[in-house]
Amino acid sequence: MALIRWAVLTATASADSADTCRLSAGACWPILLNHLNLLLFGTYPAELRWRAAAALLALGVGVATLLFSATRRWRWWRCPRTCSRFALAFVLVVGPPPLGCRRSISI
């Protein structure tokens, strides 16, 4: 109930500055939405954020398939599917030099 109160009931839906938000006891949605890219991607380079988003999507699809009971019974498929999604996420975020992608981080 406290989360609903903070996020919805006492939240600020429109604000001109951070000072306006400090007066409310709830979430300040305009400030959060202004900094959404920073919250989602941190300081990842702007031209490479599509790779981070694609990695999140691949992992999200993997988690979503776990929610369906039919796919949980495919034991032979579980390990390769999970490993391949983590590998895909790693390759998307780090960037493979042989494919011509610029390395975004150094490991």
Compute the number of strand runs: 0
> Helix content range of the residues, please?
55-70%
Compute the separation of the termini in Å: 43 Å
Rg over CA atoms, rounded to whole Å, is 20 Å
Average predicted local confidence, pLDDT: 76
Topology pattern, helix = H, strand = E? HHHHHHH
Number of domains: 2
* Low-pLDDT regions: none
Query: Structural class, from helix and strand content?
Result: mainly alpha
Biggest sheet layout: none
Based on Cα principal axes, name the global outline. flat
**Helix segment count?**
7
How big a fraction of the residues is strand? under 5%
Question: Quaternary status of these chains?
Answer: single chain
In short:
The chain has 2 domains: 2-34, no CATH class; 43-99.
Explain this structure to me?
The protein is an all-alpha fold and 107 residues long. It has 2 domains: 2-34, no CATH class; 43-99. The protein contains 7 helices and no strands. It has helices at 2-9, 18-22, 29-34, 36-41, 49-66, 69-72, 75-94. It is flat, with a radius of gyration of 20 Å.
